[in-house]
Specification:
- Chain B: This is Dipeptide/oligopeptide/nickel ABC transporter ATP-binding protein.
- Chain B: Keywords: ATP-binding, Cell membrane, Membrane, Nucleotide-binding, Transport.
- Chain B: It is a peripheral membrane protein.
- The complex is a heterotetramer.
- By secondary structure, chain A is of the alpha+beta class.
- Helix content of chain A is about 30%, strand content about 20%.
- Chain A has a domain at about 1-25 and about 275-495: Dipeptide-binding Protein, domain 3 (Roll).
- Chain A has helices spanning about 15-20, 25-35, 65-75, 125-135, 145-150, 175-180, 245-250, 295-300, 305-315, 345-355, 375-390, 400-410, 435-440, 450-465, 465-485, and strands at about 45-50, 80-85, 90-95, 95-105, 105-110, 155-160, 165-170, 205-210, 215-220, 235-240, 255-260, 270-285, 320, 365-370, 395-400, 420-425, 485-500, 505, 520.
- In chain A, helix 4 (about 125-135) crosses helix 5.
- The longest helix of chain A is centred in the last third of the chain and has 19 residues, at about 465-485.
- Chain A is globular and about 75 Å long.
- Chain B is an alpha/beta fold.
- Chain B contains twelve helices and twelve strands.
- In chain B, the strands form two sheets. In chain B, strands 6-7-8-3-9-10-12-11 form an eight-stranded mixed sheet, with helices on both faces.
- In chain B, helix 7 (about 160-170) packs parallel to helix 8 (about 190-205).
- Classes of the chains: A alpha+beta, B alpha/beta, C mainly alpha, D mainly alpha.
């Protein structure tokens, strides 16, 4: 395979291109381009070219918890007061230098001095208050961050005692408040509170230079950024749906960095594997036969060949999962191990249930979201085929996001029947509270199982801090596996990042949600 | 006055069909004189149209000339190069087809089509060729040619279309004009006009006309010489008066007998009992034997040659001395 | 106008017709091979599931992505294994059935409905024609793939709904063809004659118009055959085609596209199946067109050498 | 002529309206987008709020009336996904697809005419057989498959073409057009071939030959013009079908066109954008159909007469 990176920069207008394409001189043009490009990628000079799976629908900072938006906005265009280190899990200062719980329900944030927005105005506590107000309390705007992080936090009362201080009053004592605030990107106080803003002004190292919708988004670094100047003067984002195409762009020298590749996308030696936040699992509706019997659910759990799926389908990327979060998230239970693959035992369990009068022959559906992760259809197919062998009847149904999400969120469709839903959960926040409340609590928005005892456990754990919190959530995961088995965990997923030879970057668990351009450096 | 226009000799055309090769035209010879009309007469399927197409070089790929020659002006049309053949198409020999509606290109103006011979052969500029086209239209009797030169074929009546087709054929004053059933598709009155036009043009351009028809009346009125074809062969030929007055071949006689005395123009040749032989199973000997009232043993074994005896040219074993 | 005023072969009706057809087929090697391929496809479509056996259904992950053209793992794996370690040959055979059970009904349904409505509309003209054509316009002016996507999101993608939506989007093709021909035919003398005898319009359409329109419709159907297979494949690309555990050629091509560079056989072989089948159908169709047309039939029998020598011209004259 | 255009436009209006209405209703049957646009743990109340804000809680017919009232003011609504006006998004994407489609169809027609004519000169000859086989194969290759293969071969192995995108000048056009034109070129070649065989066999071609016309003149002046109408019909249908191909090609090559916009809008239940995109597509298809009718008239005087008669 030859690598012929060429800096195919656009000079011709579209009309000229049209002409060129339609004429015979085409071949000649092709040769000259191929020949004039040298090994040194012309674009690299001072521009970082990133290719994403999809175009950001908007760059509205309060939507930054949406992957497609956040990956561009977060820490590039706008910045939060503090941010979580995806590796250690610790919160680190960003636009706030320190934060303290001055009272059980009152948090005080000290702002970094000398920070400016890219339009030259100063960043003050007034801006911070407006931004938090907009993301946390403004339900009319229906920001994704509002629902994702502040949905259960109650109303916040904000104040700016002086230009460098912000206080946040919560209704209940909230140990997670700093973590929640780390999701709020800082915007100017005059930002609209009634409409979303497609192109925000932020304090980040880059500002938006141009956005040719559908084609390309260009960010440029600006003088006056409070931190150290990023190594690339410009960043160009493009988007391609097919992983193979994204990989090809890096291999071919048309992009420096490609996110969300699969093992089979052909990144070759430009591919860098990394674990992402996501965990995949089958979630059972536990109220209908045959899934209402825990032995059946356990049997299903045993008939999933996790290692086989990871090796054969995921190309060796990912780890067999024992719980809904990965290591590194507060509450991860080290002692849980993935259920071993054992069809004989599974069949025995099913037979046992059948003997006890459980209607194990009742068909149920395995529902998956098309292209949610690479090889999802094949994975489900493999599981379904194993279930047939242990005497269960499962039908596969692949749905698009909009249709699948109806089964994922309460209230579930009426008359849905027994369903095993393939889910993929990513805990961006780094704390199990954002997982268990959603999925394990009987009233969780995405829960179809649970028990009163488990609810108790979850509630108690949420109020704790430190090691006790870690232990309590770890126990929650153990109890779920032991007593409920509302899930069959598949894998802690991983992904591949395509990285050009002359670029240096170390992906971490948050890379898919937040790609910090400042961390990307040219290789010397 | 009676210079030879075209001399066809031993023309043989074979067809490759699903069931083998058949001879559709078998050793046909005739001579067309300038200023005269030669009629090729026969039932449909007898090979007369095929003969015309072979002579004009317009055979379909299924058919091919396997023997014979077509001499026009000292050149054998069957031997010359394709390029030369094209150069001769028009000035030396041209053809008028039966169905003028399909023979005129529906999407081109008639003026364009009429001008084409001049454009091709004389490389005449468009304007000049157009003037020639108008002149041609007037020549063949189309009223108001200036305004109709830009019309399309479907805007003309059947008779006018046939005139246009003839005009196109005589544009370059060919030495030989083949008219393949030129009036079959027309009303009787229009037929007469077209035949009159042909006769006039023949005289004006001193053309040898080969008229292909199945219409005895047309032959009687228009032709000087007739060649009667049966099953791919000429069975009798001679001046029209002689042949029609005193047919020597039983087939010719059968044809003439089948026409009521007061027959109208256009009556068909269909009242001889029986049908022509299947081309695949032409019996040895005389092809007419199955329908011939005078059939003898020799007819079943020996093919009668086309021979001239006593001033009459007939292909029949029994014809000799059967004068009426 | 027929230049061979009596086509020689037409005058011998006593020859056995069937033998003649078979000879005509033999005379065109390409068509003959095509016919054999289509027979094989039909055979596999009917018996494939049984022949393929277990290896097409239950995978063996240790044989995942097995390379083709080796008999080490039995004949089933001669074309390699898929991601789940199932025999690709077996999968192709099973897929033949699904593919055909989508494509054939789609073509038949749209053919029957489109042709009936089209002939009816063309025969009666007037408002019936206008209404039918405007409805066809509506269906036709919305890109069929997008229509299929919208509809399949409403009714979840099952084989039945895929057949239904693809059939609907293809109806206008037949409707337009049938209408045009029938509108032309209804002015002809023999239809007039039938009408004056008081033959009901349904019978006229059936007896006089249908047989004449049929060859054209069949030609359109062959082309459509290919179109439907590709449309189904495009739907699979978008994730709303045939759903696992069912499998079609289109789905296999779509699912295998990621492996094009590493395990090419996963998508190339089913792709070849589509190409070979449609090319065969087209070749056979063009043979049928020639063989049923007396003016062209000679092409199949004239020796090749002669044909090349012949002047490039003129053929059908009707 | 003007009368013809006016009448044609009038008769085209009801189908156009039906398309827009059909899409409106069908799209809404695919479900309420609230769940897609709100965070996963949004409350039922938040969802109701969202539905009410965008009118999804109303019965379809009342939504439809509101929408039509809006459209008469040339307001096609706002995208749920991007917050931009739907019409702006559709109009921005449309030219990219139009350019792609026009170039593709022109090239496909050129290739089909050349190959089809050439093949028709010697029907069933070796050249005809090869070109038939190739055109049939071309028409039956899945486009997405070819696109990925093309990227692999021409971009990665040979390194002569960019993988995707629009900013490499003329070279960006090569792969998308090659992939997109394969099917139309294949189908059209077959149609041109068939029509040319028929035309070359007709008596007027014999007449032309009898006038001494050379091969070139016979093919170009006499046969081709007669063979054009059926090819034109099929070309029109294929042009409509290009939108299907555009969905796939635009997705793979990152071409910012309307096919991708439509499919994304369906996936995201971004109804306003879908409707705007469908409306502009449907209008362009009707314009195309009228253009084809005019093309007939241009080619064939018999049709021209009818068109003229309508005036």
């Amino acid at each position: 395979m030859t690598h012929t990176p060429h800096g195919l920069r656009a000079r011709n207008s579209r009309a000229a291109a049209l002409l060129a394409a339609a004429t015979v001189s085409l071949a000649a043009t092709g040769c000259s381009v191929a020949n004039t490009t040298s090994g040194d990628s012309a674009g690299a000079g001072n521009t970082l070219r990133v290719v994403l799976p999809q175009e950001p629908p908007t760059l509205e900072p309060c939507e930054a918890s949406l992957t497609a938006t956040g990956v561009v906005v977060r820490s590039n265009i706008t910045e939060p007061l503090l941010e979580r280190n995806p590796t250690s899990g610790a919160l680190e200062p960003k636009l706030a230098t320190e934060w303290t719980q001055t009272q059980p329900t009152l948090w005080t944030f000290k702002l970094r001095p000398g920070v400016k927005f890219s339009d030259g105005s100063d960043f003050t506590s007034e801006d911070a208050v407006a931004a938090i107000e907009r993301s946390a309390n403004n339900t009319a705007l229906a920001c994704n961050v509002q629902g994702y992080v502040f949905g259960d936090s109650g109303k916040l009362t904000l104040a700016a005692p002086d230009a460098a201080t912000v206080t946040v009053q919560t209704e209940q004592p909230d140990p997670l408040l700093p973590l929640r605030v780390s999701f709020v990107e800082m915007t100017k106080s005059d930002i609209s509170t009634t409409e979303k803003v497609r192109e925000p002004v932020g304090t980040g190292p880059y500002k938006i230079e141009s956005w040719a919708a559908g084609q390309k988004l260009t960010l440029t670094s600006w003088d006056g950024y409070w931190g150290s100047k990023p190594r690339y003067a410009k960043a160009e984002y493009q988007w391609r749906e097919e992983g193979t195409v994204r990989a090809a762009m890096v291999v071919n020298g048309e992009a420096d960095l490609a996110t969300n590749l699969g093992a089979d996308d052909g990144a070759g030696d430009t591919g860098v594997q990394y674990p992402n936040n996501e965990t995949t699992a089958l979630r059972f509706s536990t109220d209908q036969a045959p899934l209402d019997d825990i032995r059946v659910r356990q049997a299903i759990d045993m008939s999933v060949d996790r290692q086989g799926i990871i090796t054969s389908l995921f190309g060796g990327i990912g780890q067999p999962a024992s719980q809904l979060i990965g290591p590194g998230v507060v509450g991860y239970n080290e002692s849980l191990t993935p259920t071993p693959y054992d069809l004989t035992a599974a069949k025995a369990l099913v037979d046992q249930a059948r003997a006890d009068g459980v209607k194990v022959d009742t068909p149920f559906r395995i529902i998956g979201r098309t292209a949610q992760f690479p090889k999802i259809a094949e994975s489900i197919e493999l599981i379904q085929s194993a279930l047939t062998q242990i005497g269960l009847t499962a039908k596969i149904e692949m749905l698009d996001t909009s249709a699948q999400i109806k089964y994922q969120l309460r209230p579930f469709p009426e008359g849905a029947g027994p369903v095993a839903l393939m889910i993929m959960h990513g805990n961006q926040a780094g704390d199990a509270a954002f997982t268990v409340g959603q999925y394990f609590a009987t009233d969780g928005a995405q829960s179809s199982s649970g028990s009163p005892q488990l609810d108790q456990q979850i509630k108690a754990a949420g109020a704790l801090t430190g090691d006790a919190r870690q232990q309590a959530f770890a126990d929650v995961f153990a109890s779920e596996n032991q007593d409920i088995r509302g899930f069959t965990f598949l894998a802690n997923m991983g992904a591949v990042l395509g990285l050009a030879k002359n670029v240096s970057y170390t992906p971490d668990a948050a890379t898919g949600d937040e790609l910090r351009l400042a961390d990307v450096k040219p290789k010397s | 006055m009676t210079a030879i226009g075209m001399e066809v000799s031993g023309l043989t055309v074979e067809l490759a069909t699903p069931r083998g090769t058949v001879r559709a035209v078998d050793g046909v010879s005739f001579t067309a004189y300038r200023g005269r009309t030669l009629a090729l007469l026969g039932e449909s399927g007898c090979g007369k149209s095929m003969t015309a197409q072979a002579v004009a070089g317009l055979l379909e790929p299924i058919a091919s000339v396997t023997a014979g020659s077509v001499q026009v002006d000292g050149e054998d049309l069957l031997k010359v190069s394709r390029k030369r053949r094209r150069q001769l198409a028009g000035p030396a020999l041209s053809i008028v087809f039966q169905d003028a509606l399909t023979a005129l290109n529906p999407v081109l103006k008639v003026g364009t089509q009429l001008a084409e011979p001049y454009r091709i052969h004389q490389r005449m500029p468009a304007r000049q060729a157009r003037a020639k086209a108008i002149e041609l239209m007037r020549h063949v009797g189309i009223p108001e040619p200036e305004s109709r030169v830009d019309a399309y074929p479907h805007q003309f009546s059947g008779g006018m279309r046939q005139r246009l087709l003839i005009a196109m054929a005589v544009a370059l004053s060919p030495k030989v004009l083949i008219a393949d059933e030129p009036t079959t598709a027309l009303d009787v009155t229009v037929q007469a006009q077209i035949l009159a036009l042909l006769a006039r043009l023949r005289a004006e351009h001193d053309m040898a006309v080969v008229l292909i028809t199945h219409d005895l009346a047309v032959v009687a009125e228009e032709a000087d010489t007739v060649a009667v074809m049966y099953s791919g062969r000429i069975v009798e030929t001679g001046p029209v008066d002689e042949v029609f007055e005193d047919p020597r071949h039983p087939y010719t006689r059968g044809l003439l007998d089948s026409v009521p005395v007061d027959a109208e123009r256009g009556s068909d040749l269909s009242s001889i009992p029986g049908a022509p032989p299947d081309l695949f199973s032409i019996p040895p000997g005389c092809p007419y034997q199955a329908r011939c009232p005078l059939v003898r043993d020799v007819c079943q074994t020996e093919r009668p040659p086309l021979e001239t005896r006593a001033g009459r040219t007939v292909a029949c074993h029994v014809a000799e001395g059967t004068a009426r | 106008m027929t230049l061979l005023e009596n086509p020689p072969e037409a005058s011998a009706p006593d020859r056995p017709v069937k033998a003649n057809w078979f000879r005509l087929l033999l005379a065109d090697p390409a068509a003959f091979v095509s016919a054999l391929i289509l027979l094989l496809v039909a055979f596999v479509a009917v018996f494939g599931k049984r022949l393929a056996g277990d290896s097409a259904v239950t995978g063996d992950l240790s044989l995942s992505r097995l390379a083709p053209f080796s008999l080490d793992h039995g004949w089933q794996y001669v074309l390699g294994g898929d991601l789940l370690g199932r025999s690709l040959l077996g999968r192709l055979m099973v897929a033949t059935q699904t593919t055909m059970s989508v494509v054939v009904p789609v073509v038949l349904i749209s053919l029957v409905i489109g042709a009936s409505v089209g002939m009816w509309a063309g025969y009666h003209r007037g408002w019936r024609e206008t209404v039918a054509m405007r409805i066809a316009d509506v269906v036709y002016s919305f890109p069929s793939l997008l229509m299929a996507v919208v509809v399949l999101y409403i009714f979840s993608p099952s084989i039945a709904s895929i057949i239904a939506i693809l059939a609907i989007t293809r109806i206008p093709v037949y409707l337009r063809t049938a209408r045009a021909e029938s509108a032309e035919l209804q002015t002809r003398l023999f239809v007039d004659a039938a009408r004056t005898f008081g033959t009901p319009s349904g019978a006229i359409i059936r007896r006089h118009i249908f047989p004449i329109v049929l060859p054209t419709l069949l030609t359109v159907a062959t082309v459509d055959f290919c179109y439907v297979m590709l449309a189904e494949s495009s739907l699979s690309f978008l994730g709303i085609g045939v759903q696992p555990p069912d499998v079609s050629w289109g789905l296999m091509v779509a699912q295998g596209r990621d492996q094009l560079r590493t395990q090419w056989w996963l998508s190339v072989l089913p792709g070849l199946a589509i190409v070979i089948t449609t090319v065969s159908a087209n070749l056979l169709a063009s043979w049928v067109r020639i063989a049923t047309d007396p003016g062209q039939r000679w092409r199949l029998t004239t020796p090749r050498r002669r044909r090349r020598a012949a002047r490039p011209t003129v053929l059908e004259t009707t | 002529m003007l009368t013809f255009l006016r009448r044609r436009t009038l008769t085209s209006l009801p189908p156009l309206l039906a398309v827009v209405l059909g899409v409106f209703v069908l799209a809404r049957l695919t479900g309420d987008p609230a769940a897609l646009y709100l965070p996963e743990n949004a409350t039922a109340q938040a969802r109701e709020q969202f539905s009410a804000a965008h009118g999804f809680d109303q019965p379809i017919w009342s939504q439809l009336i509101d929408y039509l009232a809006q459209v008469t003011r040339l307001d096609f609504g706002t995208s749920l996904r991007t917050g931009e006006p739907a019409a702006v998004m559709a109009l921005r994407a449309f030219p990219a697809t139009l350019q792609l489609a026009v170039v593709t169809m022109l090239l496909a027609c050129a290739v089909a005419t050349a190959v089809g004519c050439w093949a028709a000169l010697r029907p069933n000859g070796l050249g005809d057989r090869i070109s038939s086989l190739m055109s049939m194969t071309a028409a039956s290759v899945p486009d997405f498959w070819l696109a990925i293969l093309g990227i692999w071969v021409f971009s990665i192995m040979l390194g002569v073409l960019p993988t995707s995108g629009v900013d490499a000048g003329g070279l960006s056009w090569v792969l998308p057009i090659a992939v997109l034109m394969l099917r139309p070129a294949g189908v059209l070649t077959q149609v041109v071939r068939g029509a040319m065989i028929a035309a070359l066999g007709s008596p007027y071609v014999k007449v032309a030959r009898s006038k001494g016309a050379g091969e070139r003149r016979v093919v170009v002046r006499h046969a081709l013009k007669n063979a054009a109408p059926p090819a034109l019909t099929v070309a029109g249908d294929l042009a409509v079908g290009l939108i299907n191909g555009a969905v796939v090609v635009e997705s793979i090559f990152g071409w910012p066109g309307i096919g991708k916009l439509m499919i994304d809008s369906i996936l995201q239940r971004d109804f306003a954008v879908l409707q705007a995109a469908v409306a502009i597509t449907a209008i362009s298809i009707f314009v195309l159909n009228i253009g084809i009718d005019l093309g007939y008239a241009l080619l064939d005087s018999r049709v021209r007469q009818k068109v003229g008669a309508a005036a």
